[in-house]
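Cross-check.
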Amino acid sequence: MVQYLYKLLATTATLAIITVGVGFATKYAFPDLVWGGLIFLACLTALIHLFIFGQKSTPNGSIRRLMVGSMVRMFLGIVFLLISLLNIKPVNLFFVVSYCLYFCVFMVFEIWEMRTNLRPDSKPRSKNENA
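Predicted model, tokenized:
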């Protein structure tokens, strides 16, 4: 779990550096809510990962936890975006695009970290199997 948190922190820091770089390159003053969205999604990803892999359960229970975690992540991500959009007048397109990109990056990060756990019982095929 600690190694996962280090990777998540590195991913979050990389996204923050890219955001600052885009802000400097375009000379655009982005809202502070961009940082709030980044921190919210990083914390949400860590909590969902802890929920999914925190307790050992049956294989069916693990699948249920994975599905519930995915639904909660999407629901809370959309709720945060909608509440933010209701509070920002006028709507800031940079915030919306960056938040959606952050969401996608954190989803890809989570999938990338889970890829070894998707089929733990499978064995690699031998090279002569298809010959």
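The helical segments are 2-26, 33-53, 59-87, 93-114. The mean pLDDT is 82. Passed to J.P. for a second look.
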